């Protein structure tokens, strides 16, 4: 279990889809091949079967379409929460490189403790791979201090500035739960109407807002799992834990008032689980 909670914590989740441009280069397909044709080749080469026609593809041949995060900032005893999305709910499609650059730059500038679920095996590898593919430079994020106590290090093995909750809590093999399974077992909303397998269809139909909404649900679920782990490990007292749940509930109410109607579903499910 991690040893401390930093003043700035970013609990994040990433959504990605197969990238036809990468597929064309990897499989030497002609420019005349349509995106649909390229995707079929990518899935076939990735081991498609009648039971699993769209297998999970290596992250190097995918592109990032959305990043969502709950940002926790502590100044003295005052804790503030913010729900951040790249792109935002009303932004539409954004350039992949710009999404990655803005996220890495923000995390690096904050020196934040980065928290994800399966982030060490999935989210961070695609973030780094696609940063290279998009020619993104992120020197502040990539800076590595000479000594562990001199600042954030996102590349050090077992660094407490890079926490993967699946590694901390999930175990390995068939016993390892998904985020949905773990969150639901803890009384935290998991999947709410949309699944990861739906993201490619939403992307191809141009429904980027639905992807961002789904991405936010996963970031919120991950945050609540992290909050529970912070209480379990004694990093938060019971009063502080209850207060931070209330802070998140207030944040959800504010986001809903500002037009994020989809969060009403998350809030209602969360309240029902707690009752």
The geometry reads as globular
Second-tier CATH architecture: 2-Layer Sandwich
Q: What's the Cα radius of gyration? A: 19 Å
> Can you tell me the CATH class?
Alpha Beta
Give the strand order, joined by hyphens, for the main sheet: 3-2-1-4-5
- Low-confidence parts lasting 5 or more residues at pLDDT below 50? none
Number of domains: 1
The percent range for strand residues is 5-15%
Q: Give the CATH H-level superfamily.
A: Ribonuclease H-like superfamily/Ribonuclease H
Overall mean confidence score, pLDDT: 94
Explain the overall architecture:
There is one protein chain. The chain is an alpha/beta fold. The chain has one domain (8-274): Ribonuclease H-like superfamily/Ribonuclease H (Nucleotidyltransferase, domain 5). 47% of the residues lie in helices and 15% in strands. It is built from 11 helices and 5 strands, in the order E-H-H-E-E-H-E-H-H-E-H-H-H-H-H-H. It has a 5-stranded mixed sheet, with helices on both faces.
Set down the secondary structure blueprint:
Layout: E1 8-18, H1 20-26, H2 35-45, E2 62-75, E3 78-86, H3 96-110, E4 113-116, H4 119-133, H5 139-142, E5 162-164, H6 165-170, H7 179-185, H8 199-204, H9 208-232, H10 238-257, H11 263-274
Parallel strand pairs: 1-4, 4-5
Antiparallel strand pairs: 1-2, 2-3
Tag the structure with descriptive keywords.
single chain; 275 residues; alpha/beta; Nucleotidyltransferase, domain 5; 5-stranded mixed beta sheet; 5 strands
